[in-house]
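Model it.
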Amino acid sequence: MEPRHKTPGGEELPPIPAKRYFTIGEVSELCGVKPHVLRYWEQEFNQLKPVKRRGNRRYYQHHEVLLVRRIRELLYNQGFTISGARNRLDEGGAVEVAAVNLPESGQMPGGLRGELQSIVDMLQL
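Modeled.
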């Protein structure tokens, strides 16, 4: 599960769908940032490089959407300047990935194995 992100007004941002590419309009909605701001950030943050296709249309990948959310958090929530945010991203890597506690390979959480087995049994009927 992805961590919840909040806009400067305090409302939560929507979860990022499992897609390969996102248009600038979709990224704008997912990150709470207007398209012209995204275009400006592309000039200011060299880590943000969406793929350009068909008539110079921008297509962002999942990691770039996470990066936009991180940039927005630094600028709007933590009060960094553009150069300060740029330096912070250069220091700490492009995107900080939250640690996820995964069970050791081959192990499943208690009820999950039984639930999956009951589904398999139902399908075999």
